[in-house]
Each structure stands twice: as C-alpha cells, then as structure tokens.
C-alpha cells in the first residue's frame, strides 16, 4: 500500500526534513485530523490505513500551498490526493453494476457521467 | 622495453571489497614488460612502501605501476618512495582503481575487469615514460589578500607579523567587511566594533601591510611564487593622500537622498560619504551614481568646503601592477536576495527585515541609534517573530541546499538581546532544528530559552500578511500539533548566506576551483582545508563555506601559516612535466602562444639548414620551462602536433587508449 501511494503521488517522503512549513501554510488545518507534514510522515512509516480512515482528508482543498512552499519539493498535497484515490478505490467499493445501467439511461444525462461511475477498484 | 613492477593496493576494503585485487595482480603480471606483480593491504603504509623499494632493487625495475587511489591522493607519496630506491620519480604511474573504479561500481566482476583495463593502460604508458628532472623557480616574497573583512585582515596581520609584505585589496571604500555591520557577537555578546576596529587600525598602521581600498583585482597572471596581478583602483574622486577624513564634505553635500548601503538602505546618506565613523582608511568617497557635479557638472560644494583640497572630480581609475608569491582569497559572503520567498512579505512590508538589517536596527551606530523601532512607523515593536532557514536547506530548485550555519546562533542572540532590552516584547523563534555545535553555543541558546523566555517553536512560518499595520503570521507548532496565528509587529528572516558575487569571476582569473554553490573548493576537505587545489592560492573565511567569526579567524590564521611556509622558501621545485615544441614540425602560427595562460611561450626566428647547403630562417615556438605549468592547452591548440607535454605526450596518451581498447 505504501508503494501504491508513493507510485500514485510520485512523492518521496524521505526528502522531507520535517520543517512543518506545509502545515504552517495549510488553510484547511482546523478541519483535518492529520496535517500535511503528518501525511508525509505517515506514508514513510506505513500508517496508511490510519490516514485513509482519518477525519477530514476530503477537506484538503488541493490549493497546493504546501507544494508551493515546501523547501524540499516533497509535495504533501499529492500524498493526500493519492490517499483519497485509494479510499475511493477500496475493494468492494463499486457503486454501480452494469446491470443497473439500462434503468439509469436518460437523454439529459451525459454519457460520461455513467462511465465515470465505473472506476478501477483494488482486487 | 622497461622492466615494470605492478603493485595493487586493497586500500583496506575500499578497493578489495569491490575489486578482486589478487586477480588484477595475476592478470597484469602477464602484460608485456611486467617482471613483478603483487597486491597488498595498504600500499601507502610504511610496509607497503618498503615492499615497493625492495622490489625495485631486487628486480631491477625501471618502471612502477601502482593500482590504488587517485594520483591526487598519493602520487607524490609513491614518487618519493621510488626516488629513495633510486628510480626516477617520473617513472611511476598510478592507475586509479578506487575513485574511478571500486567506489563507483557495485558488481565485483565488472569492477575487476575495469581495474585490469586501467592497470593495463598505466603499464602501456610507463613503457613510454622518460626520466624527468625538476627545475626550480624563485619565490616573490610578497602576499596578496583579496578581501578586507575580518578574514582578510587576520590573514594579513599574521603574514605581516612573520616579516613579509602583504597587500589587501578591498572593493569597498573601507576594510572591515560584514563584521562592521554587526552589533554584538555570540556567544559572549561583546561588541563587534570594539574587537574589530582595533584590528583594522593595526592593519592600517602596520608598515608591512598596504591597503588598496575601493579597489579590485582586474587580472592575474603567473603561477605559485610568481603571480603578476593588476589591481584596479577605482576612482573615488578624492585624493587619499590629502583627505583628512574630517567629514565636513559629507555634511555639506546637498544630495541627501542616497540609500545608505552600510545600513542596508534603512536610511540615507550623501553622495560623498565615509561609510562609518571608524572606517579605515578614513577617506571620503564620491558615489558617481548620485553626485550632481559628476553627472551634470553643476555643484562642487564638497570641493569648496574641503580645506585640504582633496576633491578631484577628474580622477580616473588607476591600474597598479604588482608581483606576489602567494594569493589569499577572502571574498566573504552576502545574505541572499529574498524575492523568491515572498510568502514572508519581505517586499510588501518594511517591517519584515533580514537578520542583517535587524542587526543595524539594534546597533548603536545604526539608523535608529540602537533603539529598536519599526521601520514603517518608528514605533516600538511588541511582538517579534524570527523565521529560521529562509532559503537555506532547500531543494536546489527552491534555494540553497546547505545549512548557512550562523543563523541559529545570531537569531538566539537577537532574541536574547530583544528580551533583555525590551522585556515587554514577546519573541518567537520558529526553527526546524536548532544547530549549536560550538564552544558555549548550546549553553547560549538554552539561556535564551530558559533565562530570557524566548518562545522557541518547532515549526515553520507558512505565510505573513501585512494587515492594518500588523503582520499576520500563520505558522505551525509541530510539537503542540497546532497552527499558530500571531499578530506580529516585526518579522525577522534569517536569510541564507551565499558567496560574494565577485568570487566567481575571481575564481576564473585564479583558475581556482569552486563548488556548485560558488564556494571555493579546498585542496582536501579534511587535510588541506585552507589551500585551493591551485598552487599558491589560499582560502580564508566564508568564501570557502559558511562560517562564524571564531571559525573565520581560525581559518584566516591557518591560511596565513600556509602562506608564510611558502614565502619562507627561496625557491620552489617546478613541475618537470612541461611542454616542448618539436621545432621541425612547428609552423610558427602562434596558436600556442595565444592559449598559454602563463605566458610561457615565446617565438624566435631560428636558422635551419636547408637543402644544398642553404640556410633558412623559420619562426618557431619556445617554452620557458620555469613558467610552464604543464596544463597542456598548447598541445591541443597546436594544429601541426608540434607541441608535446613531457610525461603526458601524445604517444603516451594514445598508448593508454590503445591499451584500453585492446
């Protein structure tokens, strides 16, 4: 799972020098259980499940202030983005089966909306 | 055919762990001319050296190949070893199987193969080696110190103390450097000016020291022991010999709106100025960018008030030629520009200052007379936030990759002084790590926390927003796991330090190497820390790396000791690996003369015997071996292949290439 997060995000958590400038820059600080510098640390120490189940990861605005200001180019926002993807793609998380589609077809509804509901989930 | 001995070193496990040294020795034993081949744990040790000497005698060796570390490390060692055994030192070749093989490869088989190839190349070369004898060159007993900060001053004082003449070249109108701008020094809190200005005066009064202020080095030729330097004395429009430093002109000059660079632009000075009261030399200088007289020809007030008649609007840059045996680089540092870090609002609010600006604001000789006042409204600040590591310890794309080293301590000093002078102020220091390795340094920092109540917060400031006369600081407190919002009156940024901009062009002139950050490289990071790899060039102070004052002074004296050691010699042994032209092949094109950085090549008209008892005059190159440094530039520039370098001849290099490609 650590490797998945590293691969999706492209982040190397070892580059972090734990200065906390990301957390200092974060406008959504109060709404999150864990904060940008902790995201990076938790990936490095394998606490991914804890991060996935934590409160407030959806409140990251993806404003990229942390990415912009990180002195070491660690890009914490990309970690949380990867974690959110991992949450969505959890095993058995399918919200739609092909059988349900005919009933949902609607001239007003863009085709894309239905295709978008199919995602790649973990096996 | 030479009788070659091959000696393969293990360098403990440095080589032996990645290279099968026994196999290397075994395979190389079969090379043509190799009469003896062996391997040993530490070839450079006493026992290893004795083994080489014994073998030379026993097998009558005429050439030696040592497969070991870089020739930069031990070539000299092994040359001396062989010389003692009666072999010409230039019959020794080193195959670098450590830096260029074992240290950079992981696979033992391929590394071993490469080591064999490198050894083979060295054997091929040694077959074409010829015994060389070194000549000598005289040493000019005078030293040049470039930069008149505390590093340059200390080096100059020490060299002068040993009885040698020294010149200091300083680009500013006064010597003293950055230390003149500093208020107090850590960890003792003694006043910087009180310990520096006596040294400046010592330098000025020492009859062996000559100070070229407001001057720059414009060209350097020559080599160790015989540098020829041109110094440009910039026109200051004041006759130094007449000016008494009374300062009347600096009071009467009508041009009052010149940013005072000594106070980092925090206040203004006149167009004619003396940087500060204790300046050495205490001579006025006219700032040509602002002087109305120099710009439009209308004014002349300074000239009228000067009772000494020292003002000279016609003064021109002067060039001085001088010869030196040694050159010391002491070009120092500057804080970086902060435009890349505008999240701290440095460009948006005058109340966001750098630490050096803060130093001026706390200094009794500064723009506020030593009372800490906000630059925006002249009010006392009550909440001050210090931010560490601004531009230091960054990814290369974001700033400087190194730690600037001095910031932790001067910030502790600033914070402590604020709390001492103004106990009603709240002082926050945001830090990533507090780095205080130094005598009495950590104790000093702990005092700031424990006795002076400075709030040290592990975390970083994310942004600073100027709002209604306050600075809204948003920061992280990593230990408290909270985000802090502080309404500050002042924010002080510990900007990273970088080498002075003059260092890069100077390094080119001196052919002294630099690292990617423009710090001068030392000859050896541990064992030769004050010498540049270029002979005769020495390093003093922060031009070599970030340093505080005690370290700078220590290094300055160390550099002086090295210079004294050099100047004490009457003659230096030259490098015998010099260029020699083949007169029959030389076509007199002057290409070599043009590329020679040392001026070692001249052309003469020489009489040659032609066919049928005729003579003809041809123009051919001649090399002065005492001046030639063996750089090889001429050998590659020569279009007819007439120029060859002893010890590195074209034939030898081709033989090496052939051996590698075999």
What secondary-structure arrangement, pairings included, does this model have?
The complex is a heterodimer of chains A (123) and B (662).
Chain A: H1 2-9, H2 21-25, H3 36-44, H4 48-52, H5 65-69, H6 76-88, H7 101-104, H8 111-117
Chain B: E1 4-9, H1 21-28, E2 34-40, H2 46-59, E3 63-68, H3 71-84, E4 92-96, H4 98-102, H5 108-126, E5 136-138, E6 142-146, H6 150-161, E7 165-169, E8 184-185, E9 190-191, H7 192-205, E10 209-212, E11 215-223, E12 226-233, H8 248-252, E13 258-259, E14 268-269, E15 272-273, E16 285-286, H9 292-296, H10 301-305, E17 318-324, E18 326-329, E19 333-335, E20 352-354, H11 355-362, E21 383-390, H12 407-421, E22 426-431, H13 441-450, E23 455-458, E24 461-467, E25 470-477, E26 482-488, E27 490-495, E28 497-499, H14 503-510, E29 537-539, H15 549-567, E30 571-573, E31 579-581, H16 591-595, E32 601-609, E33 615-623, H17 633-637, E34 643-645, H18 650-661
Parallel strand pairs in B: 1-2, 1-3, 3-4, 6-7, 6-18, 7-10, 18-29, 20-27, 21-22, 21-27, 22-23
Antiparallel strand pairs in B: 5-30, 8-9, 11-12, 12-17, 13-14, 15-16, 19-28, 24-25, 25-26, 31-34, 32-33
Helix pairs in contact in B: 1-5, 2-3, 5-18, 6-7, 6-15, 12-13
What does it look like?
- The complex is a heterodimer of chains A (123) and B (662).
- Chain A has eight helices and no strands.
- By secondary structure, chain A is an all-alpha fold.
- By secondary structure, chain B is an alpha/beta fold.
- In chain B, strand 22, helix 13 and strand 23 form a beta-alpha-beta unit.
- The chains are: A mainly alpha (123), B alpha/beta (662).
- Chains A and B meet through helix 2 of A and strand 24 and strand 25 of B.
Notable traits:
A: 123 residues; mainly alpha; Fumarate Reductase Iron-sulfur Protein, Chain B, domain 2; 2 domains; B: 662 residues; alpha/beta; Rossmann fold; five-stranded parallel β-sheet; 18 helices
How does CATH name the architecture of the largest domain in chain A? Answer: Orthogonal Bundle
- Tally of individual helices of chain A: 8
CATH class designation of the largest domain in chain A: Mainly Alpha
CATH homolog superfamily of the largest domain in chain B: FAD/NAD(P)-binding domain
Largest sheet of chain B, described in full?
Answer: 5 strands, parallel
Report the principal-axis shape of chain A.
elongated
Any idea what the radius of gyration of chain A is? 17 Å
Based on CA atoms alone, the radius of gyration of chain B comes out at 31 Å
Return the CATH architecture of the largest domain in chain B. Answer: 3-Layer(bba) Sandwich
Strand % of chain B is 25-35%
Oligomer: heterodimer
Backbone structural class of chain B: alpha/beta
What's the total number of strands of chain A? 0
């Amino acid at each position: 799972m650590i490797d998945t997060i590293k691969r999706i995000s492209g982040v190397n958590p070892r580059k972090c020098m734990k200065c906390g400038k990301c957390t200092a820059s974060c406008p959504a600080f109060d709404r999150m259980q864990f904060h940008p510098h902790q995201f990076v640390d938790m990936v490095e120490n394998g606490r991914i499940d804890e991060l996935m189940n934590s409160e407030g990861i959806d409140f990251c605005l993806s404003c990229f202030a942390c990415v912009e200001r990180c002195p070491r180019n660690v890009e914490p926002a990309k970690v949380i983005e990867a974690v959110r993807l991992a949450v969505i793609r959890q095993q058995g998380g399918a919200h739609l089966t092909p059988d349900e589609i005919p009933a949902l077809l609607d001239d007003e509804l863009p085709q894309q909306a239905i295709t978008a509901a199919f995602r790649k989930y973990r096996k | 055919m030479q009788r070659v001995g091959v000696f393969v070193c293990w360098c403990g496990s440095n080589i032996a762990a990645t290279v099968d040294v026994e196999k290397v020795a075994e395979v190389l034993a079969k090379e043509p001319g190799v009469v003896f081949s062996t391997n040993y744990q530490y070839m450079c040790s006493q026992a290893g050296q004795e083994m080489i000497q014994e073998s030379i005698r026993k097998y009558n060796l005429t050439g030696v190949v040592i497969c070991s570390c870089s020739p930069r490390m031990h070539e000299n060692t092994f040359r001396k070893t062989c010389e003692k055994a009666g072999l010409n030192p230039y019959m020794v070749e080193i195959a670098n199987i450590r830096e260029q093989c074992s240290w950079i490869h992981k696979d033992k088989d391929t590394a071993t193969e490469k080591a064999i190839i490198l050894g083979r190349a060295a054997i091929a070369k040694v077959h074409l080696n010829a015994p060389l004898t070194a000549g000598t060159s005289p040493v000019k007993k005078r030293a040049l110190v470039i930069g008149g900060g505390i590093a340059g001053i200390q080096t100059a004082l020490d060299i002068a103390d040993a009885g040698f003449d020294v010149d200091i070249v300083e680009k500013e109108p006064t010597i003293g450097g950055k230390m003149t701008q500093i208020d107090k020094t850590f960890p003792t809190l003694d006043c910087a000016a009180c310990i520096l200005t006596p040294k400046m005066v010592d330098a000025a009064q020492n009859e062996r020291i000559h100070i070229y202020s407001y001057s720059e080095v414009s060209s350097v030729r020559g080599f160790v022991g015989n540098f020829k330097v041109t110094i440009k004395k910039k026109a200051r429009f004041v006759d130094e010999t007449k000016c008494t430093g009374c300062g009347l002109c600096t009071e009467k000059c009508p041009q009052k709106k010149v940013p005072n660079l000594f106070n980092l632009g925090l206040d203004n000075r006149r167009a004619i100025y003396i940087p500060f009261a204790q300046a050495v030399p205490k001579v006025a200088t006219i700032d040509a960018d602002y002087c109305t007289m120099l710009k439009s020809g209308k004014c002349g007030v300074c000239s009228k008030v000067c009772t000494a008649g020292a003002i000279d609007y016609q003064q021109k840059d002067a060039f001085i030629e001088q010869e030196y045996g040694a050159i010391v680089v002491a070009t120092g540092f500057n804080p970086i520009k902060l435009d890349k870090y505008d999240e701290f609002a440095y460009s948006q609010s005058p109340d966001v200052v750098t630490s050096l600006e803060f130093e001026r604001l706390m200094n009794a000789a500064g723009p506020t007379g030593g009372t800490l006042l906000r630059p925006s409204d002249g009010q006392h600040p009550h909440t001050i936030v210090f931010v560490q590591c601004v531009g230091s310890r960054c990814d290369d794309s974001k700033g400087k990759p190194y730690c600037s080293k001095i910031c932790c301590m001067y910030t502790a000093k600033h914070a402590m002084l604020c709390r001492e002078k103004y106990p009603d102020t709240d002082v926050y220091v945001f830090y990533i790590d507090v780095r205080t390795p130094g005598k009495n340094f950590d104790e000093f920092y702990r005092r700031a926390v424990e006795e002076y109540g400075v709030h040290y917060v592990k975390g970083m400031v994310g942004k600073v927003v100027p709002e209604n006369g306050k600075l809204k600081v948003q920061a992280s407190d990593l230990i408290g796991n909270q985000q802090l919002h502080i309404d500050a009156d002042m924010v002080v940024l510990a900007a990273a330090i970088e080498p002075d901009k003059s260092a890069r062009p100077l390094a080119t002139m001196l052919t002294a190497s630099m690292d990617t950050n423009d710090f001068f490289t030392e000859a050896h990071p541990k064992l030769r820390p004050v010498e540049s790899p270029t002979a005769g060039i020495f390093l003093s102070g922060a031009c070599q790396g970030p340093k505080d004052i005690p370290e700078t002074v220590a290094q300055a004296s160390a550099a002086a000791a090295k210079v004294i050691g050099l100047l004490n010699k009457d003659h230096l042994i030259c490098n015998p690996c010099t260029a020699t032209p083949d007169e029959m092949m030389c076509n007199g094109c002057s290409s070599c003369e043009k590329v020679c950085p040392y001026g070692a090549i001249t052309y003469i008209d020489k009489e040659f015997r032609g066919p049928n008892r005729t003579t003809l005059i041809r123009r051919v190159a001649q090399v002065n071996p005492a001046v030639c440094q063996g750089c090889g530039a001429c050998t590659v520039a020569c279009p007819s292949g007439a120029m060859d370098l002893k010890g590195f001849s074209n034939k030898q290099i081709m033989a090496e290439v052939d051996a590698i490609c075999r």
